[in-house]
Design goal:
Rossmann fold, 11 strands
């Protein structure tokens, strides 16, 4: 598949950060996702966060798995390191890269299918080990690449495009991250750039396992049953010689509301997403209180957004392993092979 790339030139008066980069320098290929997809809003928030932090793009390593969400690193930080791993295995690949070169900034980009299903075990162990990373889940509750089946984060009682009711309990990745020991936990909405950008900036600056769950609506599967213009209806009444899809572009859904407020966001299919932004005086340093608050608000049908928990004195994997300050991939032969006396000392310490 081919698609137009963004032009290399840009207006000379574009705003620049302290490194002399413009926002365009943090962009990458043109998105091939559905027009209006919430994932593109997340990409834009990452671009904005990197620009405002004045990060050198070559200092970032972006690792992903499989899914619509895992395609998105193609659309931001084009001058950064990148690795697209197999389904659900992003955390282990990121962990290995982090151990080899601790000097890079690691962005783990995943989705609810990639992290809450096939990669659930990898998600859990990366967080409990305190890998120094920003782990972002672009959460839309469906498998967008395989016709919109329920994912493991779909709420019990929710209906699919075809009207089927989900009878399984949902996995709350934020609650799991808190329980697993992540030292920075947040949730946001892809359409709330005012909240999402500073959360991403704080997560990148945090040392330790930072987890962000971003609710990101899938616009491709909002065609409701009963519509004569829906993809399902047309297929049922058309003698097609092959199966072709066309995704009608939708405007991105955005919100802007104050801390402590509750807002109802109407989705493209008419369903309503209820968001509750944390108060300014919310204390994010109490893990147990954060877990209780999540459950209390969930019982009211609300999705809490904001920085839910942060440990200001967190350890990371390198400190726990007592690794050397120099990245392992930069060690030379004298450091890697210190001689028989050093080996004898190590062996004596293990007796």
């Amino acid at each position: 598949m081919t698609y137009l790339t963004k032009p290399k030139f840009h207006h000379p008066s574009l705003p620049k950060n302290e490194l002399g980069y413009t926002r365009r320098d943090y962009e990458a290929a043109t998105s091939t996702l559905c027009a209006g997809c919430g994932h593109d809003s997340i990409s834009a928030a990452i671009i904005e966060a990197a620009f405002e932090l004045a990060i050198e793009p070559h200092r970032v390593a972006k690792i992903s798995g499989i899914g619509c969400s895992s395609k998105t690193p193609t659309y931001f930080l084009g001058a950064s390191h990148g690795f697209n791993s197999v389904h659900g295995r992003m955390p282990s690949v990121l962990t290995g890269a982090n151990l080899a070169n601790r000097d890079l900034i690691y962005l783990g980009i995943s989705g609810d299918g990639d992290s809450a299903s096939i990669g659930f075990g990898q998600f859990a162990h990366a967080l409990r080990r305190g890998v120094n990373m920003t782990y972002i889940v672009e959460n839309n509750g469906v498998y967008g690449l395989t016709k919109g089946q329920f994912s493991a984060t779909a709420d019990r009682g929710s209906k699919s495009k075809k009207g089927a009711v989900n009878t399984d309990n949902a996995i709350d990745l934020v609650a799991m991250a808190l329980q697993l020991g992540a030292t920075f936990v947040a949730r946001s909405f892809s359409g709330d750039k005012r909240q999402l950008v500073p959360i991403i900036k704080a997560a990148i600056a945090h040392r330790g396992a930072a987890f962000i769950d971003v609710i990101s609506p899938c616009i491709a599967f909002n065609n409701h049953p009963g519509s004569t213009k829906s993809l399902d209806y047309v297929r049922a009444h058309n003698e097609a010689v092959n199966a072709l899809d066309i995704m009608i572009g939708r405007d991105a859904i955005t919100v802007d509301y104050e801390p402590g407020k509750v807002v109802e966001v109407t989705q493209h299919d008419g369903s309503v997403l209820t968001l509750r932004k944390l108060n300014d005086d919310y204390d994010p340093s109490d893990r147990v209180a954060a877990m209780n608050f999540l459950q209390q608000e969930a019982a009211k049908g609300r999705i809490v957004t904001g920085l839910l928990y942060v440990d200001g004195e967190a350890d990371d994997l390198h400190r726990n392993f007592n690794t050397v300050a120099m990245p392992l991939n930069q060690l030379n032969e004298p450091e890697l092979c210190p001689g028989s006396k050093a080996l004898d000392k190590i062996n004596a310490g293990l007796r």
